[in-house]
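Here is a typical sample entry:
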Amino acid sequence: MSESASISSGIAARYATAVFELTKDGDELDRLERDVDALDMALSESADFRGLIRSPIYSRDDQGNAVAAIAASMELSGTMANALGLMASRRRLFVLPQLVAALRQLIADERGEVTAEVHTATALSDGQKARLAASLRASVRKEVKMNIVVDESLIGGLVVRVGSKMIDTSIASRLAALQNTMNEVG
């Protein structure tokens, strides 16, 4: 990990811990999760929002006013809105993506959940999702939330990441392994 990424993660972790503890004390974890989902969606869908949090050309006041308006329009909780305002006043909005990830992890840990990143070649049916969730739940002995992404480059099969474990049953990886084996032989 680069030094700047480590610093950003450390800053984000401190803000995430503070927001999480304030929210946890108020029994508002569901509200915090909705806030995190809304911010994550805004980060992924709005280039203007990403530009606002990363660009040094905006003043502290500009960033503060912008995030206050965004928080109001997104109907974020007071705790999250205040945290964003504080981050803007301290020029720390650039760590917002890491803050979202850290908050997701804290919420999941509190609830005894784990998130599985599932990449599949085709969309899964409801039955397939249920069987996969049950299988993962039995494997990790925790409640599993799945983030499913369709990736046609896999050709077939799926790739599942749960924490540091990865299960790759994709045809693309099998073909790559076969190609490596053939290169070694000949």
About this structure: Residues 113-185 form one domain.
